[in-house]
């Protein structure tokens, strides 16, 4: 594959422009106002896969947004790589914090990306990273060096919990059969130090509603004598952590995998600067569970965070009122051996039990999923590491991530194969935030590295 570098170099402007076109479609799965755009994005992905050389491409209907499925089978006796990605994106708000409109991609340089980065919602998560695979396939088919079979499965509901994909996978085990699943929807340490994600956290996401009086009340006439749902809710939330920032829900840590001191020492070898970490997000100090480092807190330890909280009067000026209701959205990131449905139940039971009689509580579970940990002693990991070593000049470091891709655990259960998480984004790429971007270097490096994975995986499978 000597010519991959020159192929990328020759076609890079087109590769960038094609991605920019894809990024212009606002495929926000969470907001039904954009449903036509989500569907149009599925069509665009279908066309791209056809052009890149898939022989069969279908838009597979589901109860929700469709799955784009494509394949190129060259020989039943060769291994099959199943590529997964998502074409939906997060909502863009708060829109006023974007320096350029989220669906009008622009290229600008940054400190971390001196060669430029594409700024748009979905640039890194996950359109840019998914599209690297489409262009890598194009390279392999156009140059007749696709070494094995390939299947693509690109979904449109990752950002809202992948329930239609779960439905699809359960019904299509045969069609999706594979030897390894390849995903680029995570990050790496830096542009000079690649890493392979070996773990993802699970997730339990709930919404709580606290109801006090049956209507909003005058805070002078009733204040002090009637429970204020916002006061109560904030107090209840505060009690969910103790003074060591340990979560207080009974049973929450039952079975939580404790890493050995050796494993923790291995983890601590990865390059990391606490100073840079604090500077990048402008904080004077970090925060978290006593007894664990920052990198442990955000990967191997479970968490509980309020994602949103509202109620009462938030308009201009002041209004003296005791609201009837208060709400919060709460996420819990989970680690191996925590079962997400069980955690949702434990949360619900505990939250109900700590509520004073003066209010009513409703807990509504949203989505969730299991965490994932993959070993490094399999040929998928080894092939990925060899590919990175060749294109970056240094071996990749295994690293567990704090993020979640809940469908990965289901892939292993239903399709019985390992997932290799070859991410090319950086933590500073602002995924889910205003001014999300993806480095041009990262995009092109991904396209260059992926075909080598195919090559080494096929060789090592023999
Ligand atoms: N691509 C991310 C997950 C991710 C990003 C993992 C970076 C590791 C490193 C994915 O699109 C995502 O945002 N997942 C959600 C969960 C989902 C159920 C909404 C998350 O992690 O919050
Ligand atoms: Mn993603
Ligand atoms: Mn995401």
Description:
The chain has 462 residues and is of the alpha+beta class. It has two domains: 4-200 and 371-460, 3-Layer(aba) Sandwich (Aminopeptidase), CATH 3.40.630.10; 202-256 and 302-369, Alpha-Beta Plaits. It has twelve helices and 18 strands. The protein has helices spanning 4-23, 35-52, 127-142, 163-171, 229-238, 261-267, 274-281, 294-297, 340-353, 379-392, 407-415, 440-461; strands at 56-60, 67-72, 80-86, 106-108, 117-119, 149-155, 180-183, 195-200, 202-211, 217-218, 303-311, 321-322, 325-334, 360-369, 372-373, 397-400, 419-421, 437-439. Strand 1 and strand 2 form a beta hairpin. The longest helix is centred in the last third of the chain and has 22 residues, at 440-461. It is globular.
Summarize the structure in short:
Helices cover 33% and strands 21% of the residues.
Kindly report the spatial arrangement of strands forming the biggest sheet: 1-2-6-3-7-17
Question: Which architecture name of the largest domain does CATH use?
Answer: 3-Layer(aba) Sandwich
Based on DSSP secondary structure assignment, what is the total number of beta strands? Answer: 18
Query: Could you say which small molecules are bound to this protein?
Result: ligand BES, manganese (II) ion
Structure characteristics:
Alpha-Beta Plaits, binds ligand BES, 2 domains, about 450 residues, four-stranded antiparallel beta sheet, alpha+beta
Fold topology:
Blueprint: H1 4-23, H2 35-52, E1 56-60, E2 67-72, E3 80-86, E4 106-108, E5 117-119, H3 127-142, E6 149-155, H4 163-171, E7 180-183, E8 195-200, E9 202-211, E10 217-218, H5 229-238, H6 261-267, H7 274-281, H8 294-297, E11 303-311, E12 321-322, E13 325-334, H9 340-353, E14 360-369, E15 372-373, H10 379-392, E16 397-400, H11 407-415, E17 419-421, E18 437-439, H12 440-461
Parallel strand pairs: 3-6, 3-7, 7-17, 8-16
Antiparallel strand pairs: 1-2, 2-6, 4-5, 5-18, 8-15, 9-13, 9-14, 10-12, 11-13
Helix pairs in contact: 1-3, 1-12, 2-3, 3-12, 4-11, 10-12
The structure holds ligand BES and manganese (II) ion (2 copies).
One manganese (II) ion binds next to loops.
């Amino acid at each position: 594959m000597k010519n991959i570098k020159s192929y990328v170099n020759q076609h890079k402007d087109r590769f960038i422009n094609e991605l920019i076109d894809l990024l212009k479609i606002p495929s926000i799965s969470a907001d039904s106002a954009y449903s036509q755009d989500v569907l149009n994005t599925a069509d665009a992905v279908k066309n791209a896969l056809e052009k890149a050389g898939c022989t069969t491409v279908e838009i597979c209907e589901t109860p929700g947004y469709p799955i784009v499925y494509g394949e190129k089978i060259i020989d039943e006796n060769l291994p099959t790589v199943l590529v997964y990605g998502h074409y939906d994106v997060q909502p863009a708000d708060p829109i006023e914090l974007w320096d350029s409109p989220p669906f009008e991609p622009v290229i600008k340089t940054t400190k971390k990306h001196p060669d430029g980065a594409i700024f748009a919602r979905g640039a890194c998560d996950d359109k840019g990273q998914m599209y690297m695979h489409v262009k890598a396939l194009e390279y392999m088919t156009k140059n007749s060096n696709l070494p094995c079979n390939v299947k693509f499965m690109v979904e449109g509901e990752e950002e809202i919990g992948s329930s239609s994909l779960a439905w699809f996978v359960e019904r299509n085990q045969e069609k999706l059969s594979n030897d390894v699943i390849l995903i680029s929807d995570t990050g790496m340490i830096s542009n000079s130090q690649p890493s392979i994600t070996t773990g993802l956290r699970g997730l339990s996401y709930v919404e709580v509603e606290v109801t006090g009086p049956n209507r909003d009340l005058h805070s002078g006439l009733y204040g002090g004598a009637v429970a204020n749902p916002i006061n109560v809710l904030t107090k209840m939330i505060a009690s969910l952590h103790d003074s060591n920032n340990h979560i207080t829900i009974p049973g929450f840590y039952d079975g939580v995998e404790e890493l050995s001191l050796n494993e923790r020492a291995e983890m601590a070898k990865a390059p990391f600067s606490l100073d840079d970490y604090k500077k990048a997000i402008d904080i004077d100090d970090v925060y978290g569970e006593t007894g664990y480092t920052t990198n442990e807190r955000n990967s191997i330890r479970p968490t509980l965070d309020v994602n949103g909280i509202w109620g009462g009067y938030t308009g201009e000026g002041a209004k003296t009122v005791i609201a009837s209701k208060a709400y919060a959205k709460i996420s819990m990131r989970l680690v191996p051996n925590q079962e997400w449905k069980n955690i949702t139940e434990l949360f619900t039971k505990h939250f109900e039990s700590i509520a004073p009689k003066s209010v009513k509580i409703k807990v509504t579970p949203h989505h969730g999923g299991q965490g994932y940990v993959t070993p490094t002693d399999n040929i998928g990991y080894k092939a990925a590491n060899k590919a990175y070593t060749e294109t970056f000049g240094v071996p990749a470091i295994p690293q567990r991530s704090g993020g979640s891709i809940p469908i990965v655990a289901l892939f292993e259960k239903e399709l019985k194969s390992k997932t290799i998480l070859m991410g090319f984004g950086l933590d500073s790429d602002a995924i889910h935030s205003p001014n999300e971007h993806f480095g041009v270097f990262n995009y092109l490096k991904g396209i260059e590295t992926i075909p080598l994975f195919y090559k080494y995986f096929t060789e090592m499978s023999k």
